Amino acid sequence: MAPILRLDDVHTDIAQYQILHGMSLEVPEGGVHVILGRNGAGKTTTLRTIMGLWKPRQGAIRFRDLDITKLQTPDIARLGIAFVPENMGIFGGLTIEENMRLASDDGSFDTERLARIHAIFPAIKQFWQKPAHALSGGQKQMLAISRAIIEKRDLILIDEPTKGLAPSIIRNMIAAFREIAEETTILLVEQNFHFAKALGQTVAVIDDGRIVHRGTMADLAGDAALQGRFLSLSVEA
Amino acid sequence: MTETTASLPTRIKADIERFGGVLWLPVVLAVVALILIGQPSTWATLTIAGLAMGMMIFLMASGLSLIFGLMDVLNFGHSAFVTAGAFIGATVLAWLGFWVTGGNPALNLTGLLLAIAAATIFGALAGWFFERVVIRPVYQDHLRQILITVGALIVAEELVLLVWGGAPIPVPRPQVLTGSIIFAGVSVEIYRIFAFLLGLLVYVAMYLLLNRTRLGLLIRAGVENREMVEALGFRVDRLFILVFMAGSALAAMGGAMWAGYQGLITAALGSEMMILVFIVVIIGGLGSIQGSLLGAILVGLMANYVAFLVPKMALASNMLLMMAILLWRPYGLLPAVKR
Amino acid sequence: MTMSQSNSALASKSGRDRVNASGWSGRALVYAAVGIIALALALAPFLFPDIRSQEVAARICVFIVLVASYDLLIGYTGIVSFAHTMFFGMGAYGTAIALKAMGPGFEAILLGGGAGIVAALVLALLIGLLSLRVKAIFFAMVTLSAASVMMVLASQLSDFTGGEDGITYSIPRLFSPATELLTDAEGRAMRLFGVPLNGKIALYYFVFVSALLLFLAMMRIVASPLGSVLQAIRENELRAEAIGYRVVFYRTTIFCIAAGIAATAGILRAVWLKYTGPDVVLSFDIMIDILLMVVIGGMGTMLGAVIGVVLMTLAQYYLKDLMALGAEATANLPLVPDLLNPERWLLWLGLGFILLVYFFPSGIVGTLLGKGGRK
Predict the structure, then answer these.
(1) What are the tens digits of pLDDT across the range B323-333?
(2) Is B316 part of any domain?
(3) Is the whole-model pTM more than 0.90?
(4) Do C236 and A13 make contact, defined as CB atoms within 8 angstroms?
(5) C167 by DSSP, 3-state: which?
(6) How far does Cα C160 stand from its chain's mean position?
(7) Residue A57 with chain C: CB contacts under 8 Å
(8) B228 → closest Cβ in A89, A93, A98
(9) A14: which chain C residues are within 8 Å (Cβ-Cβ)?
(10) In angstroms, what is the C-alpha Rg of chain A?
(11) Is residue B295 a part of any domain in this protein?
(12) Residue ranges in chain B modelled with pLDDT below 50
């Protein structure tokens, strides 16, 4: 099956700093795929480049058959790609309902999908009319993810969802993600190996702006030597 | 371990917060002014003048606040729209001659509305032009924005001088709005009531637009996080144009209203108001019309009270107010964005 | 519109990266031009002895100092301030009031001017500390408000400041045309190239030498470690903060330094004109002039201040005459004479300024020196 997303030799700069140096990546359709890397390796830059928020100096990005390298962010989103950024991108001054309305295609909600979200993330239903800035960190993350799934999307890009969250919440998120992944493709960027291990089918390790290892999660999880070589990461529980 | 009863100052502060917090500031100002002025009727006249002036400044400032909040664009040329609105409004009123100065209230109001509408529409069109030609090439570069918009301000003022000449222009006031009424022993100018009501109407309309429509939702979200709105699939640049046009139109409307208030206008009108408009935007905080309204009311009241008490300090008092508020709240009183 | 295109056009990259083919000859051109200007100014009383030219030359000297000190803020540190004329005015008014009250003597200049400088430093410190911790945009607005208030105060406290009409006063006898610096055998002022060596020359050289010293001091500052820190702050504030520079401290420092220098320029202007009023030191027009000059010359280049000031001053004085001629010549056509009316000078200036900011954001000297770049 053709990959849903493909990066070819992408170089991205921010101001005068080169961040991505020839990043090449293929994301198969369906399931959860992880990019692992430490701070500053270029994980966020990769997602932002895909999303069109930063334009690459060189290289190409293809979504299915379409070259999206030069597209503007709104057009990329409309292709069916959702983005959950590192800082969650929640609109604090708006209520949860208003946040969700922005994510729906025309302002109305598919009742079934909304019900599913309420089931996975009860807090969404509970604080429906509350302003989003009143939510806890974990709840904000749930809102961010809910926004990404209120409409069916083909690809969801998620940047470090577990950052700063308590282990119990992380456990819940693993279950939620598994459910979500059944109907879409998730490209997950993470530092937390444990979380990645629990979810990911394939993994690519990023260092210094390029991919230094790619393979299945099972292989990496089972090979301690490999882990030692590529991952000086936090091994959080 | 937490105490079971918070200290008295904390409780008072919490109570104040619960009942509106900073919204009490104008009330406090008014009360202090009453004490200093002494005579209630004078105070009442000044207060109404301050509220009316505040509303007109609100019209001029709210657009700037939203534009800056949403687009991160600082338009030092904003006051050019105020000037343009004032002159166009004055010119239309002069053209309509008898409609406006005659005794038929219906014609008066029609004339007035036409004048305001002309100014507002011009503001919107000029705003569209301005955004495309002046602002768009320098997005994200604050330094060049400031420089270019200052240049645009100069050019705009010169154009006004070119078209209308340098002599002050008298502004005919619609007959139905001239004069005052006596209410509870206080003399109240009818025009001021009208200005206040119009401003209030605009505020309500803006509030409804921002909070009850999808467009308003987009704007409020965009003010907080433009990128995320784009990542959700919306063309923020189209939003920009709309907001810019609306902001410029409002500024022009404010200018037209101010022209009617002053009775005599010069090309320097925009620059004169610019300081107050900026003070309002800073005090109120970026990106929120509530902030702009609060700031405008404060500035309007302050200007009028101080003009009566210590005439030479009128402008300085507002600057001191701004510095004081900045010390306390570096982002303004009710900002929608804390960048 | 995305981040990587965020325009750092005004962040000058180091000479290493950006020396291009024209860089070498560009440099030569700039240095030559500045050299010629310096020479012309140094010999101005002898080269251009008529009164109007003398005024132009003195004005150029003062404005070079004023604009260069403004460039310290906007070009080197990235601070936009509209309060510069305020500090200029404080130095001028301090001197003027002292000269009027204490009589024409150097003590008055020292005392009044000194007071003006101190007041400027204090005010700069207050504004700086207060506002530099808020957004840059708010800071610009605060300085605008402060300058406006100062203008209103100057015209309203007329007992003190002479109000709208300003103050006239006499200056030390040394600078009077009647004073002979060197006398010849007949007891009259000796002449050099036909120009009498009297107090007027002394006055000009007082202005010229002071301006030169101030300018050299600023070049020194820019080349010093302080200068490097400021540029680091302008290029990337977060990074500078992360490296350990307390950004607020440095910004406030340079703001005060620039204010003090502007005030000193005010002293020079006050002494030269024998008159101080809102229209010559405080008006918004002067602030616009400064902005234009610094952009035309090139932000972030000291030499740019020299070029910018000279170009604009010459243009202001002589282009207006040209426009007047043009307006007369086209008097029978419809719109044209109105457009060419020399009072509409600002219209063309404004348009030119806008075009400049679009196409040559690094100004003349900046472009010639190959600094910065447009994206």
Answers:
(1) 888 888 888 88
(2) no
(3) no
(4) no
(5) strand
(6) 26
(7) 4
(8) A89
(9) 3-4
(10) 17
(11) no
(12) 1-3
